[in-house]
Amino acid sequence: MSDHESTYVPKTGVEKWLDTRLPIVRFGADYMSLPTPRNLNYWWTFGGILALCLVIQIATGIVLAMHYVPNVDLAFASVERIMRDVNGGWLVRYVHANGASMFFIAVYLHMLRGLYYGSYKAPREMIWILGCVIFFLMIATAFLGYVLPWGQMSFWGAEVITNLIGAIPLIGEPVLIWLRGGPSIDNPTLNRFFSLHYLLPFVIAGVVVLHLWALHVAGQNNPVGILIPKERQAKDTLPFHPYFTVKDGFAIILFLMLFALFVFFMPDSLGHADNYIPANALQTPPHIVPEWYMLPFYAILRAVPDKFGGVLAMFGSIGVLFILPWLDTSKVRSMRYRPTMKVFFLVFLVVGVGLGWCGGQLPDAPVVPGMPSFTLFDGQLNSVLWLTRAFTLYYFAFFLIIMPLVGLKETPLSIPLSISEPVLPPVADAGQKG
Amino acid sequence: MTESVVTIDGEGEATRRDFIHIAAGAAAVGAGVMVAWPLINTMNPAADTLALASIEFDVSKVQEGQQVVIKWQGKPVFVRYRTPKEIQEAVTTPLTDLKDPETDAARVKAGHNQYLVLIGSCTHLGCIPTFGAGDYGGWFCPCHGSTYDTSGRIRKGPAPKNLVVPEYAYLSDTRIKIG
Fold this sequence. Notes:
The structure holds two protein chains of two kinds. By secondary structure, chain A is mostly helical. In chain A, 61% of the residues lie in helices and 2% in strands.
């Protein structure tokens, strides 16, 4: 797609003048006429949805920052003032808070799309890696933002997560004090978290530009997973606009309906009631849980009995995504043609959701209440702890063992020669004029 | 070394220009670090934060068998008046049973071994352990299940260390200064 030729012809005098000085209209026009594989399904619409999510978060965030006060004595009250007194403040805040959840729903589906259709494989490794960078920045931004309302979950979430850094041998303790700006989570911490929470979305926007740049160099993947040969390009692609702008637009409308359902009918269902209690440094809530989108990683953290080991496992679970392109040894991109890997992928989905469930439970809680059990090492076998460990093991094994081995062992189904072959009979295809 | 760097025009050898490039690059990196450091350093604890470093407390306010929680440097501090039975348990525990071996005597001040002063922050991830709960009569952390004994030593669970004893001293028989 990199050899896509510009078809833009400046019409008016102003456009001609601008085109020889700053060809920005040409840039936009070329983007819109980009040849796009015609078989893209709805799983490919999450890129556009994510771009919208980022815009929504930045727009609502800028407005919220006009009313929010990053001070330990005033932060909680200023958020309540936004909810009660600021004109439409409740709406802006609920959009922002639920927008974070919507952002993560979309990003997880977007990543799973890439995983299933092998979008991370050559020549698209950089698109995937930049995507992983964006995902990591999103987690950091969401964590920092969750601290700002200065409720009980904000405070204790910050306490627990910053303590992870303290687990690093030797440098952990000084770095922790530097990060918090004092011996404990306090006003300096809240201030800098606000500053960084405002900064990181713009860093994300910058990495998104690189992500799209890499996408336009390597070209989009498609559900069949084959590269489109140059001579097939006219037959197998359509211009991005209007064909895919309309498809993305329809998906966005459906997505916004889900978004509105949360904002208007159950705005607090994804949050935690304890965060409506002002932060209290002398009282830990009985059950600290992160937001739902971090639960799988929180579960992995708790699965390891050693403090630093747990931290390594948690960061490792995200880190392993970065080297995914080199762990998958299969030549076939799309799992449509990988019957064995497809099964392991489905198990991976169940494990991912399972880890999320485990992360929200108390580690000692039994999985099946009332089932007889015995103590294995440091916990009951019939406990969330051991279930989490089993899931964690599969999570890492999926990337580090299953992916390399299955790629070498499995016999893939025969891959079509073109993306239209599976849907059009060969005769009809030959008879078409394109 | 200097001679080899300033060799003139040798094929593939270092030239004066290479030297200038490396020196200029090194100077730019050095300058970058010097510019970055003050910015990084502002994030370290400020003077007024550090100024809140010590407090005084009257231990006679604590009833036997109870604990009082006070706030020091934004963190909870437990002051516990232990019963003779609790002290007995702490003293007689063999060091081999401990994950982070430390005698009870090393965790209190001589002559005041009924008063245990600890930073009430779990050494795992910083939650506040619950007084009197858990299998060892000390504290139990509700977050991830770490259990401490009546000397605040870690006995069970993910926490790696004993509850920290802050620096403190007895100003009089009943008055302590923490920090």
